[in-house]
Amino acid sequence: MIAIIDYDAGNLKSVEKALQHLGEECKITRDVEEIATAEKVILPGVGAFQDAMEKLEKYQLADVTREVARKGTPLLGICLGLQLLFESSEEGPGVQGLGILPGRIVAFPKKEGFKIPHMGWNSLKIKPRATLFRGLGEEPYVYFVHSYYLEAAELEDVAATTDYITTVHASVERGNVYGCQFHPEKSGDVGLQILRNFCQLGSDCLS
User: Fold this and answer.
1) Is position 180 annotated as part of the catalytic site?
2) Phi, psi of 146, rounded to the nearest 5 degrees
3) Which one of 118, 146, 169, 183 is the catalytic residue?
4) Whether the bond into 117 is cis, omega within 30 of 0
5) What percent of the chain has pLDDT over 90?
6) What is the domain count for the chain?
7) Which is catalytic among the residues 26, 79, 180, 199?
8) List of residues 6+ apart from 44 with CB closer than 8 A
9) How far apart are CA 189 and CA 118, in angstroms?
């Protein structure tokens, strides 16, 4: 079973629908035991960094998310969920993130001709052999909605980048921890393949 962490952050149903379309058993939950024992865990989300961390703490979900990462369960952060995996964000000064991966979330600089938030389809530059992007062609297009972006501390964690005003670390992979700044559940067949790759982690298909 794939646990979709429920911390009132929105976008949960879209992720659930995409997984169900792939034939995967999944459940939106904030039950700590269900999350701790799930085969895979997804931390989706849209909203503000500080509010999200407060909700994770309120529902006692921060520690179990860290534990999931520590014990090797595949964990995928989507959009705000990716940002929460890191140490801090300029959106919430002084607020600590989950700290599962090293890095920080920063605001897009203003640049003439570019709108913030970054909203729309952009192509990805994928690192060779990146697990989430197996079976996809070069520079696939995915859908973004965000005003802040990741600066990963370790470049080897970056699985894909995109260009919007600056170079954006759009996806990360480290061990069992994965993240997408874009929305795979809103990115058509490309996004479904990314989710399928995550769901198949540990199977013969991705061995």
Assistant:
1) no
2) -165, 150
3) 183
4) yes
5) 93
6) 1
7) 79
8) 4, 5, 9, 11, 12, 14, 15, 77, 78, 79, 80, 81, 185
9) 21
Q: Percent of the chain scored above 70 by pLDDT?
A: 98
Catalytic-role residue among 16, 146, 185, 199: 185
Instruction: Determine the pLDDT at residue 203.
Output: 57
Q: At residue 92, what is the residue type?
A: G
207 contact partners, CB below 8 Å, separation of at least 6: none
Residue 202: predicted pLDDT: 81
Give the chain's radius of gyration (CA, Å).
16
Contact (Cβ atoms closer than 8 angstroms) between residue 122 and residue 146: no
pLDDT digits (tens, 9 = 90+) for 53-88: 999 999 999 999 999 999 999 999 999 999 999 999
The answer to whether 25 and 50 are in contact (CB under 8 A) is no
Question: Catalytic annotation on 87?
Answer: no
Specify the pairing of strand 2-5 against strand 26-29: parallel
Nearest Cα to Cα of residue 38 among 6, 10, 11: 6
Q: Is 79 marked active-site?
A: yes
Residue 171 has pLDDT above 50, yes or no: yes
**How far is residue 46's CA from residue 93's CA, in Å, rounded to a whole number?**
18
CATH of the domain at 13: 3.40.50.880
Residues spanned by the domain of 15: 2-206
